[in-house]
Amino acid sequence: MLRVTLRTKHQPQRRNFCFAKVINFLPARYQNVCSGSVTAFGYTRVFTPNKKDMQVSENLIELYSNQQTLFGRGSIDQLIPLLAANTQPTLLFCGRSFLNGPAWARLGAALNDQIIGYEIVSHEASPDEIDGWVRRWRGHVDRVVAIGGGSVLDAAKAFSAMMQHPLNTARYLEKVGDTPVQAVTLPLIAIPTTAGTGSEATQNAVVTDQQHIQVKASLRHPVFVPQVAILDPDLLKGAPNSVLASCAIDAFTHLFEAYLSRKGNLFTQQTALNGLRLFFKAWPDLNRDNERGDAAREAMMMASWLGGVCLSTAGLGVIHGIAGELGAIKPFHHGEVCGRLLFPFLDVLAETEHAEQQRLMAQLGQQLLPDDPAPPALALKAWIKQQAIVPFWLDGPTLSATDVDWIVSRANSKNGWISYDAPTLTEMIAAAWRIV
Ligand SMILES: [Zn+2]
Prior knowledge:
This is Iron-containing alcohol dehydrogenase. By secondary structure, this protein is an alpha/beta fold. The protein is built from 14 helices and 12 strands.
């Protein structure tokens, strides 16, 4: 699945290819023995499904991904031949840390020959910034390369799309816009230098405006999935522990929330489980400067990409329902926000009486922590904290009671099985940050 090469000279470059459509075609009598019609499985330590437990997915899902995905240590070296094979006016988006790193020292001169200019991205882009870039480059750029963390990839994705749209960015944004996006964008080559957001595999570009309209919202369309992703785990080397951990816990949250989504089915759940197993392999060793570290960074890069595929397909849950609103008013690191909210959410899950949540958590516990006698949600919470390379959930910034009310009044539970009420959301936030 990882080496997905669906490139074709006859396919218009600005279209992405839907490579899997899973359709449930079985007769109704074989379908659905799930929520409502089955008693809770409880937290059985060994989950052995019998005939009654076997389920057939009700949801139809559509999976979109890159046309071409390159994966492996040193794969960034393929960028130059890829660009040279089809010369076009190309703009580079990157973070400043990339320009100071070893990959730029090695590739910079050759890359300079292939691009007409670059834009530096230092934070989550606002609608105004994207409009400024579009005004500067419209009519001069036919292809975009993005090398950086989630903010860089999202900025480049938004720019690529808006270059082909006539109105300002805010008009097309979910939540606040009034105009649907069109199925057009510039071809984008996305090269993540962090393993977390999975933006290289998703349909949406997150745009944030904390100044004027206080909104964090997406431009979203299947054709916005980057045409090419280059996943080189060595690009993670040397990142600070706090960045490695905060990004990785974002990847975990994408996989976990997509796994628990009511929009999911067997396809997305098994894909998410695959990513979660990789996360478990990688989480304790992300910062090691040895072979174990190399293996961990490779596993996390893959987990992050799978997280992007899963969230694009099955959607997310209450953690991102809160994080999206909090991010509209506070410049906190998105991954750390999700990680902090994950722990109180696991406490909520440990108490769940929802049959499908119980079934999914029992399955997850059996897959990831089969020897732990604790309820899966609590076992998961303890393992993540024990094995973390840095305790990112300690100390940190504070929120005011007014901030909390603002967030809770706008937050929702996205695609979770339960729509959590305001007191539960407030409790989760108060467990994640000190309220002053
Ligand atoms: Zn996220």
